[in-house]
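Weekly modeling sync, notes
Attendees: S.R. (lead), two postdocs, one rotation student

Agenda item 3: backlog of single-chain predictions. S.R. asked that every request posted to the team notebook include the full sequence so nobody has to chase files. The rotation student volunteered to paste the first one in as an example of the format we agreed on. Action items at the bottom.

Example entry:
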Amino acid sequence: MNRIVNVMRMQLINRWTFIGIPAVILVASFALSWAIWSFIPYEGAKYSGGSQAIMWYFLALGIQSLTMTFPFSQGLSISRKAFFLGTLGLFSIIAVVTTALYYVLGLIEIATNGWGLNGRFFALEWIAEGSGLPTMVFYFTAMMVLFLIGFWSATIYKRWQTTGLLITGIGAALILVGLVFYIARAELWGQVGQFLGSQSQLSVAGWLAVAGVALAGGSYLTLRRAVP
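Predicted structure, as returned to the notebook:
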């Protein structure tokens, strides 16, 4: 347990990368969105996709959390299991804090009529509908899946270098193209649309959680053989 906590502390050496930059991205994207809303002569709801910026940064965090500290951890004789659990635990906590921040700011956004300009940044429709729990579970799983995609990509690079990334990327693309080909050939687009349209925040979060568990398992198995 102590080694896992030590890994968390080691990751936090890069506070600016892991906490400072996400905070700057969030403040800057919101400030820019608010400025744009202020000069749009429209009375209806004004939407902004700027809130996604910090979520996509979780992808970069996954890459950086491995490439910046994994070699250092091996020099300190920290086991790969402790590194994996400590890193995953720390960024799960960061995702929980970010989720709570998004939810609270979403409530403030609704209470202030979109920050006085009828803007929609944190409380986007569909995501913010209903009770708070599904919204928060959705935010958390989305951030963790993006983090794990970045983390696994970095472990693949450490294990098999560029060749591994190329094969994995091309393989994933072929699977997606094959799936689209099957749906088109079987004329299933209508059923696919109905299925996607029937999903709730919790059900989407459930699918994301399944993907997250698979990504976490793949990351750990790859990390066991990764070269620092």
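Discussion: group reviewed the output briefly. The mean pLDDT is 92.
Action items: rotation student to repeat for the remaining queue; S.R. to check formatting next week.
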